[in-house]
Amino acid sequence: MTAHDLALEGHGIRLTPAVPDDAADAWALTDAGLWAGMTTPWPDSVEAYAARIAQQQATPGVFAFMVRDAETLGIRGSTTFYEYAPAQGRVEIGTTWYGRAFQGGRTNPATKLLLLRHAFEQWGLNRVALRCDARNTRSAGAIERLGATPEGRLRHHRIAPDGSIGDTLYFSILREEWPAVCAGLERRLG
């Protein structure tokens, strides 16, 4: 698979296809602490981050995005559709991170609204899943605030870059739940 051409915009956020040329601006917003809880090691250089984007571009079923300010086009972070299985009516959203200045505000709910709207209303999917390391309480809380339903804990499901073994928390939103989730996100952003 090559780079996708899907771009989404709304509520002051623009999602553009991630390309290796974005690496310098994106990487400047990251650090090892911010990356804690991801299953992939922190890309410790601009070149490593560019290679990560290139790897995402080459992976079937992955749509990696840069999350940008819609007005300035400055990068705020990154997010991804992955494990896209249209024949099964499902996709996952993840590998999401935001620079520290953009955490806890409107960036995540706006980004997820754009992705979820596309998944349910354009692709016509039945299910969108989200997951995080169980130790990442900040991400788990953010996912629940979106309106996703907790589905359970997969024990010893992931090995962190430091070698520790962690559990994965799974969440989902189903097509019939989407109208209420959408309304909740619109209220948060209104």
UniProtKB/TrEMBL annotation:
It comes from the Bacteria. InterPro entries: Acyl_CoA_acyltransferase, GNAT_dom. GO terms for molecular function: acyltransferase activity, transferring groups other than amino-acyl groups. Residues 14-149 form the N-acetyltransferase domain. The keyword Secreted does not apply. Keywords: Transferase. Pfam families: Acetyltransf_3 (PF13302). The keyword Transferase applies. This is Protein N-acetyltransferase, RimJ/RimL family. It comes from Microbacterium enclense.
